[in-house]
Design a protein that fits this description.
This protein is mainly α. The chain has a two-stranded parallel sheet with strand order 1-4. It has a two-stranded antiparallel sheet with strand order 2-3. A hairpin with a 5-residue loop joins strand 2 and strand 3. The chain is built from 9 helices and 4 strands. Helix 4 crosses helix 5. The radius of gyration is 23 Å and the shape is flat. The chain starts with a helix and ends with a helix.
């Protein structure tokens, strides 16, 4: 399975796809904006969107001390922007918390009357993308299994094919699988189709 599909699979498994919709005049948005005011804290937060990680891993990636990263993680947790998503163990057997974003995406709205509608829309969009990603993984898995079966059949028939001067069955399918990831093509193609339908309905 290709690297891009693996990243999609990792995001489906690891990320918390709960949208957070905040009214800019609400006190909760003040807490979030204050928590993201510090540059180092924003760097920690952005890094967690790239990949959930432990405090020590974040410290290495950001060239900061573990104590500094722990402090900023604590502040982000207090603002409900970051949460513990997993547990890992060091080589010495010490338990380490893995942190990740508590919400994704985060949306600020200027009119509190729009907030519920925006939240419902974002929930549907995020849920739809998640289902599409899962379907893309199934497509990728199914095509790879089919290609493996075709490849085995082709090898079994190879002596006869070689005599006739004909390439084994499935060569073209396997070549296409090496060039194009079916799951990724399905994912992007469906997104383009949905976008076209939305534009056409306007």
């Amino acid at each position: 399975m290709g690297s891009l599909i693996e990243r999609v699979q990792g995001e489906v498994a690891d990320s918390d796809e709960r949208p957070l919709v905040l009214d800019v005049v609400d006190g909760e948005s003040d807490v979030v904006l204050d928590a993201l005011a510090a540059d180092t804290r924003r760097r920690v937060f952005r890094a967690l969107f790239d990949e959930p990680g432990t405090a020590s891993a974040l410290a290495d990636d950001l060239d900061e001390s573990v104590q500094t990263v722990h402090y900023h993680l604590s502040e982000l947790q207090d603002a409900d922007l970051v949460e513990r998503v997993d547990t890992r163990y060091s080589e010495k057997g010490n338990e380490m918390a893995v942190y990740g974003p508590a919400s994704d995406p985060i949306v600020l709205v200027g009119n509190e009357e729009f907030a519920p509608a925006v939240e419902r829309s974002m929930t549907r969009i995020v849920g739809g993308v998640g289902l599409l990603a899962a379907a893309s993984l199934l497509v990728q898995f199914g095509v790879e299994r089919l290609a493996r079966g075709t490849r085995l059949s082709g090898r079994a028939a190879e002596p006869a094919s070689a005599v006739d001067g004909v390439a084994p069955d499935g060569t073209l399918a396997n070549l296409l699988l090496d060039v194009v990831e079916p799951g990724l093509a399905f994912f992007l193609g469906t997104l383009v189709l949905v976008a076209a339908l939305v534009v056409a309905r306007r």
